[in-house]
Amino acid sequence: MAEGSPKLTLYHAAPSRSSIVHWMLEELGEPYRLEILSLKAGDQRKPAFLALNPMGKVPALKDGDVVVTEVAAICCYLADTYPKAQLAPPIGDKRRGEYLKWLFYGPSCVEPAMIDKALGRPPAPRTTAGWADYDTVVEVLRNAVAGRDYLLGEQFTAADVVIGSGLRWGMLFKMMPELPEFTSYVARLKARPAMQRQLAKDEEIAKQQSA
Fold it and tell me: pLDDT digit string (tens) for 105-163?
């Protein structure tokens, strides 16, 4: 690593799930570098990237010699490794359990439920599907964000980055209903300067790749 270069590198494509980590990095406030991959050109399936993430998908994060993949894992790692941003309750805080629940509810329940909805798949048996069913996921999320600023109340955390991104994309592509609780929650998130910076940067990246 060259002297003075950022420790953090995000292997990124826009738009994609790596935009969630891009937002997280903006919230973190630490120097970072974007390594842009073209999904259309298949950069994510080339040997150099497969050596970082054998799944052949973005995002992947390098922090010095540490490599982390999977959105929720990356956000959890960043929040704990760089606590100055206060994006997670510290270990020992009683709110930590609820925080971790929501952080991993995104990939384990929200995403599968939205994919069921998008593909028109019938619900899997509740004894088989860890996400129960689409309607249950929607109701659990509705109750979670109703009457509060963020999932943990007044404190914004990495869990809001993961869940909020899922809700935003879900409503955008009609995979989540535009309930008043969802629209007001997402509007609060979109008003955050970090998300505005991420959206602007990703829009520019997408334009450059489509040119």
Answer: 999 999 999 999 999 988 888 888 889 999 999 999 999 999 999 999 999 999 999 99
Tell me the two tokens of residue 124: 């899997």
Choose among 20, 2, 22, 1: nearest CA to 10. Answer: 22
- Which residue, among 161, 152, 167, has the nearest Cα to 198 in the 3D structure? 161
* Bond before 59 cis per omega within 30 degrees: yes
Contact 87, 156 (CB under 8 A): yes
What is the C-alpha to C-alpha distance for residues 48 and 198, in angstroms, rounded to an integer? 26
Q: pTM for the whole thing?
A: 0.95
Q: What is the pLDDT of residues 92-109, one digit of tens each?
A: 999 999 999 999 999 999
What is the second-level CATH architecture of the domain 96-192? Up-down Bundle (1.20)
Across 139-148, b (16+ Cβ under 10 Å) vs e yields eebeebbeee
CATH pick for 8-86+194-210 out of 1.20.1250.20, 3.40.50.1970, 3.60.21.10, 3.40.30.10: 3.40.30.10
Instruction: Write down the domain spans for the chain.
Output: 8-86+194-210, 96-192
